[in-house]
Amino acid sequence: MQSEKHLQRDISHIQKLINIGDVAMLVSRSADGVLKSRPMETVEVSAEGELFFFTTLSSELIGELTENSFVNLSFIKEDNHFISVSGITQVIKSKAMLIKLWESRYETWVQDGLDNPDIALLKVSLVRAEHWKHNTMLNSIRQLFTPGVSAVNNVHESIEPDESR
Fold it and tell me: Confidence band (pLDDT; 50, 70, 90) for 165?
């Protein structure tokens, strides 16, 4: 088992990379087995590494998650950071939590906002996360024409809370 200290460090690293307002492509599996993606705006990243998104209970997504609660979230960040989070979902209907995390700009995603009786939060608990940082195309071109400049400046990290190191 990964030590609690290492796990917390890794979760902190993910928290620094994923911010409130970041949009992820959430991938779920439909009833017929086809993978489906949709954009979801991150509304919270907890100290435990859980990510929260507003949704509606009647959405096709919630129906899919009833059959299979595993999802993948893909983030593309500035400076060539790429993040993939695999996790297990849970629907949260707590009015207190909805109010705590709500901002008027989320009405883009949820019509009628907090007055919508269909509103809920989708919590994604981290099972595995991966982070890549790659050179830009311009840096890659420079490396081709600059003697002594290494082309291997890419980073790949993997976080698996339930795995040993």
Answer: very low
